[in-house]
Design goal:
single chain, about 240 residues, alpha/beta, Alpha-Beta Plaits, five-stranded antiparallel β-sheet, five-stranded mixed β-sheet, elongated
Length: about 240
């Protein structure tokens, strides 16, 4: 019984087999190339936002996990995401146990919080991981127990908040600088501390003592009330 057409003899089988192998190898090569390109793009994006946030805040010496907020409404139950907008970036530093919420559209650091690893990752519909490491976000109740601090630069010296914010966090366990910005009016001759919430006087005293600054009862005229527990306005005495 003749299985092959006369025009297609057994001598054609070897070249056909080689052709199949070549096609498979090309397909595998293309797949690996695309995967590597995607990984490289993700790494470039991580470095890009790490550099941008590094201008605003002294970052830990490690490569963060990067994720993007894609459904802010489903994240509102977590304090960390109270002011999040779709498109915001989350940088997670697992070794330093810090998470940062950054808004690329205005190049502004929105939130900084302690990060506690848990087994629960957020659904992809709410947050999409950009880098290869899975995103685990600050959802522990311990985050709610932190004393949040806004640090404003009351001078014309660039980078003062970036320099001193990590030092302020070291003053007392639980202190977390969540916002940094420029003061509405300048210059401030001396650094001041205000217990905005009225519930963290001891922490405010510790900051004032450590910085050698004034502890005020009321917000300085002209400044906007922050949504944190304590306000620190750095003065010329810290230049």
């Amino acid at each position: 019984m003749q299985l092959l057409p006369r025009a297609f003899s057994k001598k054609h089988l070897l070249p056909l087999g080689l052709l199949v192998i070549v096609v498979v190898l090309i397909a595998v090569s293309i797949y690996l190339f695309v995967q590597n390109q995607r990984l490289s793009a993700g790494n470039r994006e991580v470095e890009k936002y790490k550099a941008e946030v590094g201008v605003l805040y002294e970052l830990p010496n490690e490569t963060p996990t990067l994720a993007t907020v894609t459904d802010k409404e489903k994240l509102k139950s977590q304090q960390f995401f109270q002011h999040a907008e779709n498109g915001d970036k989350v940088l997670i530093f697992p070794v330093a146990k810090k998470a940062m919420l950054y808004r690329p559209s205005v190049k502004k650091l929105i939130e900084v919080a302690p990060f506690f690893a848990t087994a629960d990752a957020l659904p992809e519909a709410q947050l999409t991981a950009t880098s290869s490491t899975a995103a685990i976000l600050p959802s522990s109740p311990a985050v709610l127990q932190q004393v949040t601090v806004t640090v404003l630069n009351g001078t014309s010296t660039t980078g003062l908040t970036k320099k001193l914010s990590p030092e302020i966090e070291k003053i007392s366990p639980g202190l977390t600088v969540t916002k940094v910005d420029q003061a509405k009016k300048t210059p401030y001759v001396q650094t001041i501390v205000v217990d905005i919430s009225g519930k963290h006087t001891e922490s405010a005293k510790k900051i004032a003592t450590s910085l050698g600054s004034q502890l005020l009862q009321n917000l300085p005229i002209g400044e906007q009330k922050p949504d944190t527990d304590i306000l620190v306005i750095l003065g010329q005495d810290k230049q």
